[in-house]
Amino acid sequence: MRYTLEIQKLLLQTQNDNLHPREKANLLKEAIRIADENEDVEWATELRLDLIYELNLLSADAEEITVFSKILDDYENHKDVIKEDDLLWKYKWIWACTFDLPEIPMEQVQAIGEDYKTRILRNGYSLRSYYHRWSVECVWMRQYDKAKEYIDIEIHKKKDLLKQFEKKSDKSEEKDIFKELDSRARNVKKEDLEEFKKQIRPILDQVYVHAEHIIGIENVETMLSELKAVHNVLENI
After folding, report:
1. What is the Cα–Cα distance from 172 to 126, expressed in whole angstroms?
2. For residue range 81-129, what is the model confidence (pLDDT) as tens digits?
3. Is 164's pLDDT higher than 50?
4. How far is CA 23 from the centre of its chain?
C-alpha cells in the first residue's frame, strides 16, 4: 500500500532532533490526513496521540482537546481496533488542559472529569489520578480545604495504589504514581506536614514490603529508585 510509505517517510522526518515541535506537529498532521483518507483508523489514532505530545510542548491546549475529541469519536465507532485503555494516559493530560482554558465553563470541565472517571473505572484502574487532578487544581485555585479533602481521599485509597502494580499494563503508569506522590509532598500546606507524613509513610512501607511479590524481583530496583525521590522530599520537609 503506497500510502503507508508516504506516512513512514513523514515519520522519519519527525525523528530529526533539530526540528521545532511545531514543525513535527505539521508533519504528523500531514501523516494523519493521509491515514484518514485511506481509512486507516488504528494508525491515525496512534499518530494523533503522538501529535498531542508535540502540541503539549507548544502549550496548544485548545488544539490538544480538539485532536483528542476526534480520537474519542473514532473509539466509539471503531472499538474493534482502538483500545480505550491505551487512551487513558493522554486523557488525563487533556482533562488537565481544560482547567487552563477560560472559555471552557467549569460545568464542562467537571463533565469531562466525570467521563474520565467512568472510563478509568471501566478499565479496572483506581480513582487515584482523578482525585489527584482535583487536589492539584484546588491548590491552584487556593481552595486549600477542598484540596485537602481530595488528598485525604487519595491517601485512604492506598490499597488502590498497590493494585496499580498488579495491573502492570504500562510502566509509565507505575512511574506516574511516584511523580504524583512527590507532587503531593511538595504541595501540602506547611501546617499539615506532620499529619501528611504520618499518612503517606504507610503507603510507601506497604509498597516496600509487597514489591517483590507484586511486580517481580526484576522491577524492584527501578521502583525503589522512584521511591527514593519521594522519601527524599519527605525527609527534607
Report:
1. 16
2. 999 999 998 898 899 999 989 999 999 999 999 999 999 999 988 888 8
3. yes
4. 24
How far is residue 227 CA from its own chain's centroid? 19
Q: How many CB atoms lie within 10 A of CB 121?
A: 12
> Considering only CA atoms, which of 88, 7, 86, 80 is closest in space to residue 41?
80
Q: Which has the closest alpha carbon to 119: 160, 63, 76, 56?
A: 76
Distance CA 129, CA 219 (A): 22
pTM above 0.85, yes or no: no
- What whole-number distance in Å separates Cα of residue 50 and Cα of residue 145? 37
Q: Which residues are within 8 A (CB) of 209 and not within 5 positions of it... i.e. 6 or more apart?
A: none
Q: How far apart are CA 222 and CA 219, in angstroms?
A: 6
Q: Provide mean pLDDT across the span 44-49.
A: 96
Give backbone dihedrals phi and psi of 193, rounded to 5 degrees, phi first. -60, -50
The residue assigned the cell 479533602 is 149
Tell me if 113 sits within 8 A of 130, measured CB to CB. yes
Q: Which cell goes with 197? A: 507524613
Q: Give me 8's grid cell.
A: 513512514
Instruction: Calculate what percentage of the chain has a pLDDT beyond 90.
Output: 45
Question: 88: which 3 cell numbers?
Answer: 487513558
* Overall residue count recorded for the chain in this entry: 237
Q: Which residue has the cell 472499538?
A: 79
The answer to whether 174 touches 165, Cβ cutoff 8 Å, is: yes
Grid-cell match 488525563, residue found: 92
Query: Coil, strand, or helix at residue 127?
Result: coil
